[in-house]
Design goal:
The chain has 10 helices and 8 strands. It is α/β, with parallel strands linked by helices. The protein has one domain: 3-Layer(aba) Sandwich (Rossmann fold), CATH 3.40.50. The protein has an 8-stranded mixed beta sheet, sandwiched between helices. The chain is globular. It comes from Nocardiopsis endophytica.
């Protein structure tokens, strides 16, 4: 484990692979931890890539001293990590992490070679009104950590890997930490109000990944097709997977990611 020093604290991350390999930076979503990318690290490093998987502010092993926990903060942390590691990078993001990845591509295009957006929120609509108030009430203490765990667990519709219980245990430990939960709650509060991703400014090639059973949208396929058309992206619909297809179905997603990385390198003249 390593740390990226930011003005208000440190962001924890793991780094694997050859020092001269093309950089891939992986950004989790709200409530999740960097081990959500555990099934990508091995195959990507074996293929010669340098892979960094980071925690969000107050999540996992990152510090809890941060005063702000917005989607833009996540994007700025991601950009800082890419610079620290000598980018540019392909940025892999899930959920809020995917929204942040798109923001980095739009605002710092020199740092981004490609985007892999899994379960991304790109419309900037958020949750408002009665639904937003209900969510806020659901996450309040003392019942909030248990409800958050239940909610996150429900998003793994379909298949899960053999090590899924250990991953959920890591999420549970963070949610039940009195030091971490306020920051995690702040991320929840902002995750459903994603910033508009300035999609017209995204020029990097992109792969949209969506689980066919993702409960965050009434019609996951329609949402994924909208993102594909909006970005001119490739699209991978993943069967028997919910909001975390990269973790749930590595048998499907890892080969597609390797193909995307290879195609992106060819287009950029690096292969």
């Amino acid at each position: 484990m390593r740390y990226l020093q930011r003005p208000d604290g440190r962001i924890a991350y793991d780094l694997h692979g050859p020092a001269d390999g093309p950089l891939v930076v992986c950004v989790p979503g709200m409530g999740d931890v960097r081990s959500t990318y555990r099934h990508l690290t091995g195959p990507l490093t074996e293929a010669g890539y340098r892979v960094a998987a980071m925690d969000l502010r107050s999540h996992g092993d990152s510090d809890t001293a941060f005063a702000s926990h917005t989607t833009v903060d996540t994007a700025e942390d991601t950009a800082a990590l890419i610079k620290e590691l000598g980018g540019p990078a392909t940025v892999v993001g899930n959920s809020l992490g995917a929204t942040a990845a798109a923001w980095v591509a739009a605002t710092r295009p020199e740092l981004v070679d490609g985007l892999v957006l899994s379960g991304a929120f790109l419309r900037g609509e958020g949750v408002r009104g009665a639904t937003g108030l209900a969510l806020k009430a659901m996450l309040m203490r003392p019942w909030g950590p248990a409800m958050a765990e239940r909610y996150l667990g429900s998003l793994f519709a379909g298949r899960t890997s053999e090590d899924h219980p250990a991953h959920m245990a890591a999420i549970r430990a963070a949610l039940r930490s009195r030091d971490r939960y306020p920051g995690i709650l702040a991320v929840f509060a902002n995750a459903f109000r994603p910033v508009p991703a300035r999609l017209d400014d995204v020029r990097a090639p992109a792969l949209v990944v969506m689980g066919e059973l993702d409960r965050d949208w009434p019609d996951p396929a329609a949402e994924a097709e909208w993102m594909r058309d909006r970005l001119g992206a490739d699209l991978l619909m993943v069967p028997e997977a919910g909001h975390y297809p990269l973790a749930q179905r590595p048998d499907v997603t890892v080969p597609a990611l390797l193909d995307f990385l290879a195609a992106t390198a060819r287009e950029a003249g690096r292969a």
